[in-house]
Every structure is written in C-alpha cells, then in structure tokens.
Amino acid sequence: MKCYNHPAVDAVATCKSCARGLCHECIAEVGLSCSCRGRCEADVATLNDLVERSRTAYQKTSATYFRSGIFTTLLGTIFALLGVAGVSSRERSEWSFFLLFMGIIFIGWGISHFVSARKMRQK
Question: Assuming Cys at both sites, which of 30, 66, 86, 120 could form a disulfide with 44, CB separation 3.0 to 4.6 Å?
Fold first, then answer.
C-alpha cells in the first residue's frame, strides 16, 4: 500500500478514521492510534474516547441494574406485606388483593434486575 498523499512512498499505517494509507510524514499519533496529520486527528480522538467509554459501560450498567433491583424488590416487599396484612384481616378489601398482586409483580421485576446485573457483570 502506498501513502495517500505521497504515492511514491510506502504506507506504514492506516488512518483510524478514513483508512487511508499513511507514510511517516503524514502520521499523527493520537493516543495509541494513527490518523492523518491535520485532517482526522479530532475524529480519531473522538473514536478513542468512545472506545474507552464502552469498556466501562457493562460495569456501570450492572451497578445500575443492581441498585434498581434493590429498590424494586424492597418496594415489592412493602406492597406484599401490606397486601398480606389486609387479606389476613377480617375486613378484606379489593385494595389488599391489589397490593398483594403488585407486591408479587415488583418482587419478580426486582429479581429480574438482579439477574440482569449479574449477566452484565460477567461480560
């Protein structure tokens, strides 16, 4: 492959942004990547930043799912306890069954968040 700007010179790298062949004179190093000098440096810096952010995305998502699972499970437990208390009392109302049902739904939803957090942490 020849340099895009100097056709008589062999290319020693390719630009991470535009994939053009580059010789030693045309290379600008941006972090651990190569880019066209004076042309693609900002684009390559942006790409490098995106790669760095994506490396921590699974960890951050896992932590968010875990916190959400705690909140949802606690809320479901409160609803379920209020529903059980209402159903087991002498004066049963529709709200007691509704709270019990919502408690079960929220607890299941919270458990699904814990499972998702665990899967994200393993990646």
Answer: 30
The ranges assigned to domains in the chain are 1-39, 56-122
CA distance 24 to 11: 8
Angle between helices 94-122 and 41-88 (to 10 degrees): 150
Q: How far is CA 16 from CA 30, 35, 60, 73, 90, in A?
A: 10, 6, 27, 46, 72
4 falls in which pLDDT band (50, 70, 90)? very high
pTM for this model (two decimals): 0.62
Query: What does the alpha-carbon distance between residue 59 and residue 79 come to, in Å, rounded to a whole number?
Result: 30
- Supply 30's token pair: 């941006």
pLDDT tens for 26-61 read: 999 998 899 999 999 999 999 999 998 888 888 899
